[in-house]
Design brief:
Organism: Starkeya nomas
CATH superfamily of the largest domain: GntR ligand-binding domain-like
GO molecular function: DNA binding; DNA-binding transcription factor activity
Low-confidence stretches: none
Radius of gyration: 19 Å
Strand order of the largest sheet: 1-2-4-3
CATH topology of the largest domain: Four Helix Bundle (Hemerythrin (Met), subunit A)
Protein name: HTH gntR-type domain-containing protein
Helix content: 55-70%
Distance between the termini: 8 Å
Number of strands: 4
InterPro entries: GntR_C, TF_FadR/GntR_C, Tscrpt_reg_HTH_GntR, WH-like_DNA-bd_sf, WH_DNA-bd_sf
Keywords: DNA-binding, Transcription, Transcription regulation
Mean pLDDT: 85
Strand content: 5-15%
Order of helices and strands: EHEHHEEHHHHHH
CATH architecture of the largest domain: Up-down Bundle
Largest sheet: 4 strands, mixed
Amino acid sequence: MESADTQTRLNIAPLAANTSLRTLAYDAIKKAITEMDMYGQESEIRLDERQLSHDLGVSRTPIREALTVLEQEGFVRSVPRRGIFVVRKSKREIIDMIIVWAALESMAARLAASRASDRDLAELRDMFHDFEEEAPSEHMNEYSNANIRFHQTIIRLGGCEMIAEMTANLFIHIRGIRAVSVRQENRSQRSLQEHRAIIAALVARDADLAERLVREHTLGLAAHVEKHGRFPS
């Protein structure tokens, strides 16, 4: 990994006045971290407190308070005399997180097989409508976003609040890993085929099959990361 760090300007809008600027700053910064390509570069990602203050349109006090909370939750880390950095997981940690996600999402799929409405499943299928005529590799950014929405939707359709809560913080890292891996080893085409099989199982209300396919699909990501992943040590 390169030793130099990268100072990153997050894609966030100014905050409107509200009762808690710290809460608003926390929500805005966490959302921006979630949406950034944190594993798409080798160098560390440093946040600029002054730039965040300027971008959000607030003083540095609520920014510092928000960053303190984010550090307590494990999303950023403060390094003396160097600054604030986005936390990125090691390869071993990432694989463990994917295994946990596989367990949770596969159970959500089992629940969704009976709980999701026909309309919900039609909307799930429609996520990949644009890729029926052309390969996902022809529209990689769009497919990557659809891929991520697919897995979020499986969690939501399971209708279990505890699973949704447990996957919420994992999602920041899982999203970044999926965004990188789907571009490697022609995984996008294989991913699309597996998504279609999962949707078919859900439409058939086959809970056993839906659960197994989701688990195997996600564990396939873990195997890919084990073989090809280059992440912080």
